[in-house]
Fold this sequence. Notes:
Elements: H1 9-25, H2 31-48, H3 57-63
Helix pairs in contact: 1-2
Amino acid sequence: MDFAEPSALPAMIQDLAEFAEICRKLSIDEEPFIRKTVALYHAYAAYLNAAEKYDDFADYLVRHSFHFKRNMPVVIICRFPRGSLSGRLR
């Protein structure tokens, strides 16, 4: 998410929706992670619109009472061409 432009956020949220669908098909419950990530994406967009008021994104989250852990493990979601996995998961 670092250095993501606000215009990239809809595609990032769409990627999460696809990830959620894959998880559903595999019976993996990642709903809490997905909800928190969507909330972070929206918070990041709001932060970018007022970044000059904050030291950094973590400062924005603290000031807006967004609960997070600074040293959370990083989850990498690979990008695949649209539809490339859906046929394999049915």
